[in-house]
Automatic annotation (TrEMBL):
HAMAP family: EF_Ts. It comes from the Bacteria. GO terms for molecular function: translation elongation factor activity. Keywords: Cytoplasm, Elongation factor, Protein biosynthesis. Residues 80-83 are annotated as: Involved in Mg(2+) ion dislocation from EF-Tu. This is Elongation factor Ts. InterPro entries: EF-Ts_dimer_sf, Transl_elong_EFTs/EF1B, Transl_elong_EFTs/EF1B_dimer, Transl_elong_Ts_CS, UBA-like_sf. Residues 30-197 form the Translation elongation factor EFTs/EF1B dimerisation domain. It comes from Hassallia byssoidea VB512170.
């Protein structure tokens, strides 16, 4: 039987919010395969229910980029005032604000927040591209689907590689924080200001 390292257990816990013993059991059952272990935890209903809990506390964080040409306001929610006042939570909110400042293409928190009409518009753009004209229909459909998924990810904050650690996404950063604080944490909304963007020149 494969030896399951503490590091692997910790990684699975950070990704799922499940308990340490559940994570170890899942990894043991799945020979250390991370994706299979996540699926195993889901099947056994061991994925933490933390993310279903109401997060009504938190804070609104701001970030002004050097030079004062880009500014961000972001609302990050948690469950208790105790966590919202902690330095670690404030650092998390600041890092998320900096992430938004660094990503000019993002418009939504999650892909699920993107309106149907925006998705339809992206589909029309992709379907009209010249490089697809001579492709068979089944190949064309796959290419279009792949391009749309890529575009929607580019528009979503949670799907961005985290600026301080490119090996994880913002979503994984938030999951790690959920595991650390033991509370539901949600990025609720954000506004990104670019100097002069509403002024006709």
């Amino acid at each position: 039987m494969m030896e399951i390292s503490a590091k692997l257990v910790k990684e699975l816990r950070e990704k799922t919010g499940a308990g340490m013993m559940s994570c170890k059991k899942a990894l043991t059952e799945c020979n250390g395969d991370m994706n299979q272990a996540i699926a195993w935890l889901r099947q056994k209903s061991m994925i933490s229910t933390i993310t279903n809990r109401i997060a009504a506390e938190g804070l609104i964080e701001s970030y002004i980029h050097t030079g004062g040409k880009v500014g961000v306001l972001v609302e990050v929610n948690c469950e208790t005032d105790f966590v919202s006042r902690s330095l670690e939570f404030q650092i998390l909110a600041k890092n998320i604000a900096m992430q938004i400042a660094a990503c000019p293409n993002i418009e939504y928190v999650n892909i699920t927040d993107i309106p149907v009409e925006v998705v339809d518009k992206e589909k029309k753009i992709e379907m009209g591209r010249d490089d697809l004209a001579n492709k068979p229909e089944n190949i064309k459909a796959k290419i279009i689907q792949g391009r749309i998924e890529k575009r929607l990810k580019e528009m979503s904050l949670m799907n961005q590689p985290y600026i301080r650690d490119q090996n994880i996404t913002v979503e994984e950063l938030v999951k790690q924080s959920i595991s650390k604080f033991g509370e539901n944490i949600q990025v609720c909304r954000f506004v990104r200001f670019l100097l002069g963007e509403k002024i006709e020149k």
